[in-house]
Amino acid sequence: MSSAREWNAASYDAVAKPVHQLGQILLDSLDLRGDETALDAGCGCGAVTEALIARLPMGRVIAVDGAPSMVEQARSRLGDRADVRLADLSSLQLEEPVDVIFSNATFHWVPDHANLYRRLFAALKPGGRLLAQYGGDGNVASVRAAIAAVAIEPAFSQSLAGWGGPWIFDTPQAATIDMERAGFCEISAALHKVTATSDRPHEYLETVILGSHLQRLDEGLRAPFVAAVAAQLEEPLIVDYVRITVSAQRPI
Predict the structure, then answer these.
(1) Which among 24, 70, 151, 219 could bridge 65 via Cys, Cβ 3.0 to 4.6 Å?
(2) Dist. CA 138–CA 239, nearest whole Å
(3) pTM value?
């Protein structure tokens, strides 16, 4: 997660199961011997990190996140099973490179992807592998349309009108160019669509999607903004995710 916004880590842990499930599916596709040193780049509350640890019984996991609340939650969950650090991916530096970098639902919060991929390249050993998934081109289109409709209302327009949001949603072409320029080889980048539902729609919107918007609003306007966005969407809440999955290798 980017350090640019605050996160309610306890709420995220409770309501973000659809995001965690996507991370688990991605992790299941990662070929591991079990003795690698792996970096979880944007560990959040540590739910998927815990599954990564189980895949590395003879290895080591370093987990980083830019949000202090998420780091605290991950440390509470994982204890000494992982080296959990507060770190912004935009300035990531490791004392020793790792064998594998894994990331779920994080890179779209990082503003400069060219710099991001350079940082990740530097954090890998020669032959090391990257596997990541994040919001891709067209992600959460219906929610973004609802945000745009609400943002022009008088109560919210001074803070939100004309602001495109905090996200960078890559096309496969853009991601590939950034990885190539960083030095990666064996590059793959592809989009896929998936929907998510929540039985706690207001909390899901508030915690998982709208946090950066809410930080721009006075506290008294935050709950009305969430309610107004939710009212623009169909019930039950269905979030139309578009994910980009990227994989690459640092040349040997």
Answers:
(1) 70
(2) 12
(3) 0.95
